[in-house]
Amino acid sequence: MRFPQFATFINTFHTLALFSARSSAAHSRAHYKALQPSSRGFLLKSMPLFPFLASIFTSSSKSRNMDFPLQKSDDEWQAVLNKEQFRVIRQKGTEAPFSGKYDKHLPSTGVYTCAACDAPLYKAGHKFKSGCGWPAFFDAIPGAVTRHTDRSLGMARTEIVCSNCGGHLGHVFKGEGYATPTDERHCVNSVSLNFGPEDKAAASDEAKPKEAEIGNGEAAEPEPAEPEVDVKADSKV
Length: 237
Hints:
The chain has 237 residues and is an alpha+beta fold. The protein has helices at 6-23, 25-34, 37-46, 49-56, 74-80, 83-90, 200-206, and strands at residues 111-114, 120-123, 127-128, 136-137, 145-150, 157-162, 168-174, 184-188, 193-196. The longest helix has 18 residues, at 6-23. The chain is globular, with a radius of gyration of 26 Å.
């Protein structure tokens, strides 16, 4: 039996805690109204702790301040992403484990792209079954993913973002003992991904115009098309 690493355990615990907190928000507000004035005062005095806790359980990497080829404001991203996509991709959130549509998705061909900008990130052959609760990849398309140091949760982790738009994908874990060529696990949120049956990375290269080279290095001119000849066979009765 494979036991999860401490970082994976903490990440799962934090995600479940956030999920429980959101589902009980309305219930908590009702209880707050029922509190005695003295209890309310204690709660309000405790509120300065909340930003401190939030700083622990959110990503501290500086990827949002970096220059990426695709730049948009938060308002522009909210116009093209749904609420969950914006929370995870732009605010560096985490979806609940075993809830993503690509967790158990194991195609033989195709490419996973960024849900925010459609840039190719992972090929189907990079994906493997890890049992961690999130899509797992042992490698990425060269140059498609950028790594940063994330010091949230009281430890140093490696965050991965889309190299085109800076959107949060997840984290990389190394040395877990999986039988993969890199011994790495790119733990990626399903909500950060889209999937296409065609390999868009290869298709984009094939779509570029190709020129035939001749001896002097210049492009060869296309040969003129031969005129069509309408041949009619004589019919005899």
